Structures are given as C-alpha cells and as structure tokens.
C-alpha cells in the first residue's frame, strides 16, 4: 500500500475524518487533528511501516508532503 | 450563614445501569449487580467477583474523542451528560460558569497497564504518545470540561475510597460560600484491568465468591464477609445554589446540609474509630443539627473483617443511645465498591432514598456479626415515610474520612 492511501485510510477510519475532505493538499489541521492527535497519527504511521520519522523531518504541511516523506523514509530503510 | 445547596440532577453509569430510578429500585430490592468474572486470560488469570459496568461509549462520544479517553473519562462524560439532562441545566442556564469537582483514585489504569506491557513485555520504548494525558487521575474532570464547554474550576480529589465524597463536599462548600452557583460533582473509577486486580488480590482485601452465589459475595456486617467486591463506574451530581434553582423553577432531589472531614493519622490501611467519629461529628456540627435528627446512615462498610465493626463503634460513639434507633445499611452489598466513584454513588442513592422515603437494605446480611449489633437493615428495604435526614460515610485507605449530611426537600 502506498503511504498516501494508508494515510487516507487511517484518517477516515480511526480519526473519523469525512472522506471528501481527505485531499492531497489538505493539512492535518484542516482535517481537525490537534497536536496530540498528530503525534498519535505519526505513531500509527511509524508502526505500520516500521520507520521512524526524525523530529526535524516532521514539519510537513499537507497530506501529499507527509506521504512523500514517508515514501522516502521507506525507501531509505529498504536500501 | 451561607447559601443553601441542592442536588438537582443525577447522572449514573454504574453496575446497575444508567437509569437512576431503576438503579435505585434494584438497590432497594436487593438485586445484586455483582458477578463472577474471569480476570486476565484462561491460563494467567483469576475468577473474581466484580461489579462490572456494561458500558458502550460508541453512540455517546465521538470516535476521535474516545481514542484519547481512558475508560474512567468516557464513563464520566456520559454520566455528566446524563446528569445535565436530568437537571435541565444544559439548556442555557449558566453551565459554562459551573465548576467540576471530581473524585478519582487511579485514572486511566488500563492505559497505564498497556504502557507497561509495551515497555516490559514488548521491550519497547515506543508506547502510545498519548499515554500520559490518558492516565492522569484528573482526566475525567478535564474531559467533562472539554465536552460541555465548562470554564469554571475543574478539580480532582484523589483520596482513595473517599475521593468523590470529598469532591462533593468541596463543591458544596464552594457553592454555599458563594464562589459558584452550580457544579458537576462526583467521581469516576475504572480499574478492573487484570494488572490492577492482581495488585488488589495481593492486599488480601477482595471478597471470595460466596457459597450462596457470587452475586452475594459482598457481605458487609455479616459473619461470613471476606472482603469487598471491586466495581467500576461514574456518578455525577448537579449541585446548585437555592437562588439558581428557584430561578429555573426545578424541583431538587435533596439538599446537602453538612460536610465533615478528618484524618486518622494512624495507619495506611487500618481504619480508626476516632478519625471516623471526628468526620461524623464535624458534619453534624456543619449541618447545625443534633445526632438524634439522623434517621439513616449509608455506611462506608465495605465488608472487610476489620473495617465494618470499627464504623459501628464510631457510629455508637457519635450517636450514643440514638445509634440503636437509627437505620444504617451498606448498599455496597449489591453495587460493590467503586473506590473513587463509590461515595458519589452512595450519596446519589441516599438522596433518592430521602426523595422516595425508602431505606435500601444491606441485601446480603443474613448472619449478622455480633460486633455489628445495630439496625443494619438486613435483606429487605424498608418504607420510611418519615425519613428526613441522612448521612453518607466514606472512609479511605490512608486514613482520610468524609461524611455528608443530606436532607429531604
């Protein structure tokens, strides 16, 4: 599963975000996640892909940027 | 002389259910909510009599909020919704300025257990990021504030078994003294996770399943008592100043007229007569009434061998000759010991007893201990149309004692 479709699935199912709102350019704040929820959300993602998002890289804005970062971290781990 | 303070709403999420009328009726009829439960797993566990609360937050709390709430907080928010609804306070009557005074012993016990499981069993430092805000004992109060937009003080009293009695007493004082017009006050506790139960088992205070059936395992004042039955749940009362209540034109359930607290300074786990006496005497003095005016006591009596006779001695000492003419019962016989929520449940039951003129029984008392030789209302509840004034006692581990005095309205 690509990072983006996983993010979209978790947001819809676990965080009850309206699927119409889950768009590549949406930010997590747009989707109603507060800072604690964002940390928990990243924890889900890290667990799913067995990666760690370094603190200095957790500065993404949109879902697209988050997915790109995760895809990059997955690739680094594979290589 | 301060303002008069009334109970104008009740919200329950307890082993007997959520509907306060049916909870009272079942307690009055001696219908036990206690059952034998397998705690832990088939291989690594134990069969324990417990008072479990059937609770499904699904339709009551938004899914994303539930994710960040321990069970005690979820129960507290639903109990608060029930209490606000029963009082009608939510409909634009200053709920925003209310206070929240909660009792809670352990907080998110099951979340703490999960955190330790990750650390010790999975040998991982990567537990859930929200573990800390979920295990706080103050979580239930915070979530009530968040859920209903209440911006007054949101305080939590963590005083073991006396937590919610003290919370109600402190809310009573804040309203009486004019600091607040209304408060949501009570307690929440949910520690029936296996790690907590194993710890309680080791203390040797939990009741064994009784031969007449696990539902009769909580036996305060009885010769065959073996300890207390742990329960879980949340209970919220709406407390209001007389002026606010009159403005709204709402009939109260009962009035709170006195509150007393003391500490034994004696033992971490053993009760002491003098400390309990002091709490009761202070509460009666606070209510400005004579001991002879008390008709009923909802006793703390949990069903431990040492605790129940100590409370009987303390009552004899405070009430003198009148002790043998008043009725006292331990409703823990059917709802178990909800620890941080227990006092609030017992205050709610006492308030409903006054409202209805009905004294609930010590339902399992079939073979009274001669050391407990007062009228402990064995087995059957009692019609008491003249019931006017009652006391509710809570005596905690650590030696903290709290007594509230309630009056029929």
What does this structure look like?
The complex is a heterodimer of chains A (79) and B (409). Chain A is mainly α. Chain A has one domain (3-78): Non-ribosomal Peptide Synthetase Peptidyl Carrier Protein, Chain A. Helix content of chain A is 53%, strand content 0%. Chain A has helices spanning 3-13, 35-49, 63-78. The longest helix of chain A has 16 residues, at 63-78. Chain A is globular, with a radius of gyration of 12 Å. Chain B is α/β, with parallel strands linked by helices. Chain B has 13 helices and 14 strands. Chain B has helices at residues 20-28, 63-66, 71-87, 109-121, 131-135, 139-148, 163-176, 194-203, 242-248, 273-287, 307-319, 332-335, 342-356; strands at residues 5-13, 35-40, 45-50, 99-103, 154-157, 182-189, 233-241, 254-263, 296-298, 327-329, 358-359, 382-383, 389-395, 400-407. Chain B is globular and about 60 Å long. The chains are: A mainly alpha (79), B alpha/beta (409). At the A-B interface, helix 2 of A face loops of B.
Please tell me how large the radius of gyration of chain B is.
Answer: 20 Å
Distance between the termini of chain B: 19 Å
Tell me what portion of residues of chain A adopts beta-strand conformation: under 5%
Greatest interface by residues involved: A-B, 12 and 10 residues
Biggest pleated sheet of chain A: none
CATH superfamily of the largest domain in chain B: Thiolase/Chalcone synthase
Q: What is the string of helix and strand elements of chain B? A: EHEEHHEHHHEHEHEHEHEHEHHEEEE
What characteristic shape of chain B results from the CA principal axes?
globular
Look at the structure and name the CATH superfamily of chain A.
ACP-like
Strands side by side in the biggest sheet of chain B: 5-4-6-7-1-8-14-13-9-10
CATH architecture of the largest domain in chain B: 3-Layer(aba) Sandwich
Biggest β-sheet of chain B: count, sense, barrel? 10 strands, mixed
What is the tally of helical segments of chain A?
3
User: Would you tell me which CATH topology of the largest domain in chain B applies?
Assistant: Peroxisomal Thiolase, Chain A, domain 1
The structural domain count of chain A equals 1
Total strand segments of chain A? 0
CATH top level label of the largest domain in chain B: Alpha Beta
According to DSSP, the number of beta strands of chain B is 14
